[in-house]
Specification:
8-stranded mixed beta sheet, 5-stranded parallel beta sheet
Length: 631
């Protein structure tokens, strides 16, 4: 890589530059690649600051028989081409019938190739990137592409399944012509068809009729969802759509494609998520799978779903993974191999995090103290004084950071009387650079009212679950069948999926992740709304951990758009309605962006021992938490 890459361009920071679109035609799928690249946090509009360049010319499909084929590609005229150095070319299809040559039909110079169907003989390890073959209708963002299935013991209807084309001649025909020998019509279902292509009738053989009868008996999606293993044999090319479809359905892929470099093999340990068999020994596949212990099968399935969700759920995740692999090579700051196999995935494990401990990798250290982040949103000085006193009384409080966009706090004399360190700053994000050795952050609004016991108990819960968001006030979301959209709900219920950040504990790392992982386009949606930021923060943590937040105590703070819920003043109704409408609009925008709702529901509520029991209050450790007083 050192001879084909200009390292000096990346000496400061890793940035990518996408060339402006030309008048040339771009396929819908490549348009999604371009959109994903520009949505990356590494994207820049300044080519002089870029480390990596991406041509806007559509190079995905180089099959001359394809409708998306663009003839006569010439990249040397690009203003920053420099022989292809520091450029990356995305390609899914190379070559055409009959030999399907793997060489691209245009000059790529010294550019990095990010391609599907990479053969180990032409793949340049540590330079190129192997991609999956993805369909045209792949979503730009979100994980709705991944089926909502849970890892479970191998009690599926079928052990092994495949439904697809069979080639009676030419490259890729050898393996698929053997599959009928394995098909037993019981637990191994391998059905093929010869009826594909414009001239299929010219190449039929004696098995085509029998194969078609079996082929028509089975539904493809049903096989995917009801099979423990899915066979992924090579086709005309090494890569196949079956690979990504199997992963996303929770069906363990069985790869039969000798020489294929698996997608993102540089960082993903595929031995955890799939089985590889030699094409020449394909007839032994059934016996091999029957010998596997069911505990291993469950583990394979867990990692298959995990990899699908983290790296193959959308075009955005595929592009982001590609960029992270290249960034690691350039910066020489690599994640540990185990980070890529975690529930959160390697993309959410940021190697540049300056703090101590990461909740996505292990149980963090330094959880004995917390820092309070008090957001001044309403300017209620009287309630602020009471809140700060209660926070300062906690023996676990290391310091308080008051956050306001103006200088209204500089003239408050009684701040010096608070019995802990008080810092004033104008940053109102979820992250702070103060006291980097402290992991726990307690974020709270200035109009909130929490007793010291309530704060201490919530912190004790967070210490047991440092990877979760722990707080007092919960919300939920529901599907509105009438309007065909997700609806925000503030109704009092046992179910919840959102914790309001008007009073919540979380790990410092999530604030850093919010600032450095999320792309600008999604942060722009919430930039002027504290409630929207709170909702996005909940989505980020739930998506990273695949777990819901935790609600503590029984703080009843309820508002909704319905003014008949309880007697309130006209001013309260106006404020509550605005808050509800703001949250609803924000939820709609975020679900449209993510093409789904990355939240997890729960009914768990944790209370102190003897909470509200009919015993003496002096027997209770958090005696003031029961009444929510300010003592």
């Amino acid at each position: 890589m050192s001879n084909c890459f200009n390292w000096t361009r990346c000496s400061r920071e890793f940035r990518i530059y996408v060339y402006p679109e030309t008048s040339a035609r771009i396929s819908p799928l490549y348009a999604k690649f371009i959109a994903a690249l520009r949505a990356s946090p590494y994207s820049t509009t300044n080519p002089n600051a870029a480390c990596l360049f991406v041509p806007s010319t559509d190079t995905l499909d180089r099959d001359r028989l394809s409708a998306n084929f663009i003839p006569r590609i010439e990249l040397s005229s690009l203003p920053y081409w420099n022989g292809g150095r520091n450029h990356i070319i995305f390609n899914l299809f190379s070559g055409t019938w009959p030999d399907y040559n793997e060489q691209l039909d245009f000059r790529t110079g010294m550019a990095i190739h990010a391609r599907a169907s990479f053969n180990s003989e032409v793949y340049r390890s540590g330079f190129d990137v192997s991609l999956p073959l993805i369909p045209v209708d792949s979503p730009l963002r979100g994980s709705s592409w991944v089926k909502l299935v849970a890892p479970r013991p191998p009690s599926n209807s079928y052990l092994l399944a495949f439904k697809g084309k069979r080639y009676t001649y030419g490259i890729g025909s050898e393996t698929r012509n053997l599959l009928h020998h394995l098909h037993n019509d019981r637990d191994i279902i391998l059905v093929t068809t010869c009826r594909h292509g414009k001239q299929w009738q010219r190449y039929v053989d004696e098995r085509c009729g029998v194969d078609q009868i079996e082929f028509d008996r089975y539904d493809y999606d049903e096989l995917l969802m009801n099979s423990t293993f899915c066979l992924v044999p090579r086709g005309r090319r090494l890569a196949s759509y079956r690979f990504i479809e199997s992963l996303q359905s929770g069906c363990i892929p069985v790869i039969a494609a000798n020489g294929w470099v698996l997608p993102f093999n540089e960082v993903l340990d595929w031995n955890l998520a799939l089985i590889t068999v030699d094409e020449r020994l394909i007839l032994q596949t059934g016996a091999l799978l029957r010998r596997l212990p069911w505990q291993h099968v469950v583990t394979y399935r867990q990692y298959a779903l995990r990899f699908a969700r983290n790296y193959f759920s959308s075009v955005q995740s595929i592009v982001d993974t590609t960029l992270e692999i290249i960034k690691e090579r350039v910066s020489q700051r690599r994640r540990s191999p185990a980070a890529w196999s975690t529930v959160a995935g390697g993309l959410r494990v940021l190697p540049d995090y300056p703090g101590d401990g990461n909740p996505l990798l292990s149980n963090p250290v330094n959880n004995k103290l917390f820092i309070a982040l008090v957001n001044i949103r309403h300017g209620l000085i009287s309630s602020l004084h009471s809140l700060l006193l209660n926070i300062a009384r906690s023996s676990f409080c290391r310091g308080i950071i008051l956050r306001s966009r103006n200088n209204e706090l500089n003239n408050i004399d009684w701040l010096q009387l608070i019995n802990t360190t008080v810092v004033i700053e104008t940053d109102v994000t979820f992250y702070t650079t103060h006291w980097l050795d402290i992991n726990a952050l307690f974020i709270v609004d200035d109009d909130s009212s929490y007793s010291t016991d309530e704060i201490d108990f919530a912190f004790s819960v967070w210490r047991e679950f440092p990877e979760r968001l722990v707080g007092f006030i919960s919300r939920d979301f529901l599907w509105d069948y009438k309007n065909d959209q997700w609806r925000f709900s503030s109704q009092i219920s046992n179910d919840y999926s959102i914790i309001e950040t008007t009073g919540a504990f979380y790990h410092r790392y999530y604030g850093y992740l919010y600032n450095n992982y999320l792309c600008d386009s999604v942060k722009d949606i919430v930039i002027n709304s504290g409630r929207c930021q709170s909702l996005l923060f909940n989505m980020l943590i739930s998506e990273s951990t695949e777990r819901p937040p935790i609600r503590v105590l029984d703080r009843i703070q309820h508002w909704s758009a319905n003014p008949n819920d309880k007697p309130r003043t006209t001013a309260q109704i106006i404020v509550d309605t605005r808050q509800f409408d703001e949250s609803q609009l924000c939820l709609q925008k975020l679900t449209d962006f993510y093409q789904g709702v990355p939240l997890r529901k729960s009914q768990v509520k944790l209370d102190p021992v003897l909470f509200k029991d009919n015993v003496s209050n002096y027997r209770k450790r958090y005696r003031h938490a029961e009444y929510g007083d300010n003592v």
